[in-house]
Amino acid sequence: MSVLVVIVNYRTADLTIDCVRSLALEAKRVPGVRAVVVDGDSQDGSSERIAQAIEQDGFAGWCTLLSLTTNGGFAFGTNAGIRHCASDSHEYVWLLNPDTIVREGALGALVDFMESHPRCGIAGGRLENHDGSVRNSCFRFHSPLGELERALRLGPASRLLARHAVTPSAMPDTDTRMDWVSGASMLVRRTLLDRIGLLDERYFMYFEETDFCRRAAHAGYECWYVPASRVVHLAGQSSGVTGSQGHLRRRPKYWFESRQRYFRTHHGVLGSRAADLLWLAAYPVGRLVAALRGKPAQDPPHLWQDMLRSSVSSGVAREPRLPSPPLDLAALADRPLVSDEALGTVNDNPPGLSLFELWREDWETHDRDFLSQGFWAVAVHRFGNWRMGIESNALRLPFSIAYRLLYKWVEWTCGISLAYTVRVGRRVHIWHHGGMILGARAIGNDVHLRQNTTFGVRRRGDSRVLKPVIGDRVDVGAGAIVVGGITVGHDALIGGNAVVTTDVPPEHVAIGVPAVIKPRRSAAARMGDD
Question: Where are the alpha helices (DSSP H) in 293-415?
Fold first, then answer.
């Protein structure tokens, strides 16, 4: 067992040094701890002071300093620290804010919980003020109705919208599964990073941990709040957005940009607009009622105007998209990422693009042909996943009815069965049509599927359907059958009418009935001539 602790500093050298000193005691209790302090180009002498403290306090054996030449924000600095230690084999990565003090047993409690809960990918601890009072540190995912509740902040409305409220009415006293936890103290399983990638660096600060936890949930990992792990958090020391004085300062532009990016990524353009409109309409009502009750304002100056400006100006410029993360075939083959009970209840569309952007990409993939049966099969699949992201059962119902009708239409008219419970990557091209039953657990990026292909056949003597995993850039020939429980590696080719009964390593060819596995060495091998 080993843990990498990543601390990102920006002009808070004294707090960072105190954090490392508190961590030193925990490093003695938990073996295999290594820490990296990342300075985000503070230009105030922070690097020199932190380096001196590490040397003088004797921490050099387990703590190092990484000085960046660019301040790219929290996600940027965190990823730089993880990459800096990529050569080391760490089972866990602990994201820790510089304005924190680690209580005794904080790291051990998180590690112990993760060790006993293998499906947990993220665990966060209890954040406290100096006096021991509890801070909010575990939350529900942001949603349009959650924005309505947060803007109104009225008793009856909050009770009605309680299941959509981002912040629970009280922090739990026991281990509790939550949607996301604060990045001030967040332990992450390394296999999760291998599966979904690092934090999204397009978030300068705020919402990056929410986005990361949501991506983890889409991949089938759980997120838990573990109150036995106690950390003092002096919130807002770098940004000034949170903390006791946060309401005195105008909220920075990057906060609104991060909020817009999160909603557009996970709720699409329509969901983002709905969240903006609900908040903008409800906020004046909530403030008016609060004023009539004599409650003092606790919001930053010009918040409504800044939110309106953010909503109007958002989405003008198209941003470059992150590359699609490859499938972690080993993790998928070892155990299901999603339990049988959870299949069909999560949105498994590729992260980072809205539904409309995915449709546009699929249209390009299918040569801009609206008559392509493959395009409609994938489009309906994306729609089926998207509607599962609608939290309200009542609002989801009409979309579910529409999806079931569309799914049957594709199945009957196109001859393609592709349930939304299959995790389909980006740029999956379905050629021709007819007799295609695609029952895989996961299909990677840039995969080509041809006529009469069948995935997910029940293996004789097994009581359940074992779902195969198809890696990136796999080319499946016409009439090929891949039976249950098979892992097909990246850049492999399944020959026409091949029946695959064993795993196919990356860059190999499977030919024949049953298939013979050969290295993919030449163009002749691709054609099945050797």
Answer: 303-313, 329-334, 355-365, 373-387, 393-413
Cβ neighbours of 285 (radius 10 Å) = 14
Q: Residue 463 — pLDDT band, cuts 50, 70, 90?
A: very low
**Could you report the per-residue pLDDT of 90-122, keeping only the tens digit for each?**
899 999 999 999 999 999 999 999 999 988 999
Mean pLDDT on 210-226: 90
Query: For residues 424 and 418, is the Cβ–Cβ distance under 8 A?
Result: yes
For residue 430, give Cα distances in angstroms to 368, 374, 448, 455, 513: 13, 5, 6, 14, 23
- Token pair 């609060």 is found at 290
Class of domain 329-526: mainly beta
CB-based contacts of 352-358 (< 8 A; 24+ apart in sequence): 352/200, 352/265, 352/321, 352/322, 352/324, 353/265, 353/321, 353/426, 354/264, 354/265, 354/267, 354/268, 354/269, 355/268, 355/382, 355/383, 355/386, 356/268, 356/269, 358/382, 358/426
- Contact 20/35 with Cβ under 8 angstroms? yes
Entry field: residues in the chain: 530
Structure tokens at 40: 């985000």
Which residues in 96-105 are b (16+ Cβ under 10 Å) and which e?
A: bbbbbbbbeb
Average pLDDT over residues 484-512: 84
CA neighbor of 240 nearest in space, from 99, 353, 367, 335: 99
Instruction: Give the model confidence (pLDDT) of 3-56 as tens digits.
Output: 999 999 999 999 999 999 999 988 888 888 999 999 999 988 999 999 999 999
Query: By C-alpha distance, which of 102, 135, 133, 101 is closest to 246?
Result: 135
* Res 330: pLDDT: 47
Question: H or E stretch including 189?
Answer: strand 185-189
Cβ atoms of residues 500 and 471 within 8 Å: no
**Of the candidates 485, 472, 355, 348, the residue with the CA atom closest to the CA atom of residue 421:** 348
The answer to whether residue 243 scores a pLDDT higher than 70 is no
Pair of tokens at residue 330: 């080993």
pLDDT at 316: 37
* Cα→Cα distances 102→21, 74, 90, 182, Å: 9, 20, 20, 15
CATH 3.90.550.60 residue ranges for the chain: 3-136+171-244
- Coil, helix or strand at residue 261: helix
Q: Which residues contact residue 292 at a Cβ distance below 8 angstroms, ignoring those fewer than 6 apart?
A: none
Whole-angstrom distance, CA of residue 382 vs CA of residue 385 = 5
* Domain 3-136+171-244 belongs in CATH node 3.90.550.60: yes
Looking at residue 114, what is its pLDDT?
A: 94
